[in-house]
Amino acid sequence: LPRIGVLAVQGDVREHLAALTALGAEAVTVRRPDEVEQVDGLVIPGGESTVMDKLVRAFDLREPLVRRIAEGLPVYGSCAGMIMLADRIADGRPDQQTLGGLDITVRRNAFGRQVDSFEQDLDYAWSDPAVSGTTGPTGRTGPVHAVFIRAPWVEQAGPAVQVLARVGEGPAAGKIVAVRQGNLMATSFHPEVGADRRIHAEFVSIVREHRLQQSGARQSPERE
Ligand code: GLN
After folding, report:
1. Which of 190, 200, 202, 210 is the catalytic position?
2. Is residue 123 a contact partner of residue 173, using CB atoms and an 8 Å limit?
3. 67 marked as binding residue
4. Strand partners, 162
5. ipTM for the complex shown
6. Which residues form a coiled coil (predicted)?
């Protein structure tokens, strides 16, 4: 089983643990530096990025996290997690740091106070065809029902960044809300709140693939 950690200093940790467990991963909380070393992949949940940043530094997690990201650890960031993975924040607090890794600039609370939270169906560019098909691990097809809660958007993305989803309608139409760059993946929205597990399944698939590469296997992984 792939062992996938959920950074558990702040935010909606439990929902991610449940989603990962439902997909057959061994899901564990990560709070200490040594726990960072023991996972095959990591989820950084939604929450409040300024608080998460402070706690990550206070718990001496910053150095091991930045190092493992640089070494190629698969990491999925949702909402505040996306902010933590961004190389740049458009309007961060002066002392706010991110872990970085994704060549993107994010804007925090980008959708504005009047639309604190909203939901929208999004077209999603799946990386793993097995995930999006009816025979995939979740049996779901069609658009992703995305839940946004004081969400960031991606203001600018470098050439190595794949855009996976954009807002489809409304005043923010066209804004980038899901990206991937190598083993790093991030969404502005919260897939852990609904019953659709495809986003997590995509991430588990990235983790599996990375583990196989690491163990020197040459063949592509078997799909369930
Ligand atoms: N607005 C929060 C931040 O800036 C993110 C909100 C969320 O994760 N739901 O960190």
Report:
1. 190
2. no
3. no
4. 180
5. 0.96
6. none
79 flagged as catalytic: yes
* Residue 180 assigned as binding residue: no
Contacts 24+ apart (CB under 8 A), 129-136: 130/205, 130/223, 130/224, 131/198, 131/201, 131/202, 131/205, 132/198, 136/198, 136/201
Q: Does domain 3-214 have CATH number 3.40.640.10?
A: no
Is the CB–ligand 1 distance for residue 108 below 6 Å? Answer: yes
Options 15, 16, 79, 209, the catalytic residue: 79
77: CB partners within 8 A, 6+ apart: 43, 44, 83, 84, 85, 102, 184, 185, 186, 187
Domain ranges of the chain: 3-214
Q: Does ligand 1 come within 6 angstroms of the Cβ of 46?
A: yes
CA atoms of 200 and 209, how far apart (whole Å): 14
pLDDT (tens place) for every residue of the chain, 224 residues total:
999 999 999 999 999 999 999 999 999 999 999 999 999 999 999 999 999 999 999 999 999 999 999 999 999 999 999 999 999 999 767 789 999 999 999 999 999 865 678 999 999 999 887 887 766 666 778 899 999 999 999 999 999 999 999 999 888 999 999 999 999 999 999 999 988 999 999 999 999 999 999 887 555 555 54
The answer to whether the beta carbons of residues 43 and 4 sit under 8 Å apart is yes
150 is in an annotated binding site: yes
CB 149 near ligand 1, within 6 Å? yes
Active-site hit among 15, 192, 202, 209: 192
**Residue 190 designated active-site:** yes
